[in-house]
Amino acid sequence: KNEVEQSPQNLTAQEGEFITINCSYSVGISALHWLQQHPGGGIVSLFMLSSGKKKHGRLIATINIQEKHSSLHITASHPRDSAVYICAVSGGGSARQLTFGSGTQLTVLP
Amino acid sequence: SQTIHQWPATLVQPVGSPLSLECTVEGTSNPNLYWYRQAAGRGLQLLFYSVGIGQISSEVPQNLSASRPQDRQFILSSKKLLLSDSGFYLCAWSDPGYTFGSGTRLTVV
Fold it and tell me: For residue B2, is pLDDT > 90?
């Protein structure tokens, strides 16, 4: 069993739809990260969470530490949101290395 | 501002040839530095991390090595590449949020 599980693996939505991507983890963590990877491969960090909820523009990330679960929401989705979204966790200690989920390929159709 | 530079962007190398990928960061001091790899059709995997100059930790046994000769410089090397070394290599730093380099797509032929 992977330490970080994401669902769904693939998601196709129509422009304007509300999107949710889920992430569950089985290990103790110091922080959870949501990353976005575009077709060229470059990765951008969207959020780093250790509790509660964060919002940036149309993106919202939540985490429930007790249930070991996080969600990434996209409101009013747009074709430019099409990308792979990756959940990753960092454990305790000073190294802060990441363990990654397998990613969710999101396609938003116009 | 804090930036990270990684080069080259793409690389095609024959089996058995050496490898050197370089990553430098600006705008921060004593960052944690990382090399990750994404093989075709697979997720990201940690290869090496460094919490300071000359300090390298390896996560996966392989024919790759890493060095940190300066605080803001992280180098990934191999003496002899294998076909299985093909993939997308990402340098990153953490302070504690993550910033990723633009990546190097390595094809071993």
Answer: no
Q: Touching check for B7 and chain A: CB below 8 Å? A: no
Q: Please tell me if residue B41 touches chain A, with a CB cutoff of 8 Å.
A: no
Task: Write out chain B residues lying below 8 Å of A56, CB-based.
Answer: none
All residues of chain A having their beta carbon less than 8 Å from the beta carbon of residue B51 are: 94-95
Yes or no: say if A87 and A102 are a contact pair by the CB < 8 Å rule.
Answer: no
Minimum mean pLDDT range among A12-16, A67-71, B27-31, B73-77 = B27-31
Closest residue in B to A6 (Cα–Cα): B43
- Select from A96, A99, A105 the residue whose CB has the most chain B CBs within 10 Å, as the one to mutate to test that interface: A96
Q: How far apart are CA A100 and CA A79, in angstroms?
A: 25
Assign A105 to helix, strand or coil.
strand
Q: What is the DSSP string of B26-43?
A: ES-SS-EEEEEEE-TTS-
The b-or-e profile of A40-49 (16+ CB within 10 A means b, else e) is: ebebebbbbb
Judge contact between B6 and B105, C-beta under 8 A.
no
For B45-85, the pLDDT digits (tens) are 999 999 999 999 988 767 899 999 999 999 999 999 999 99
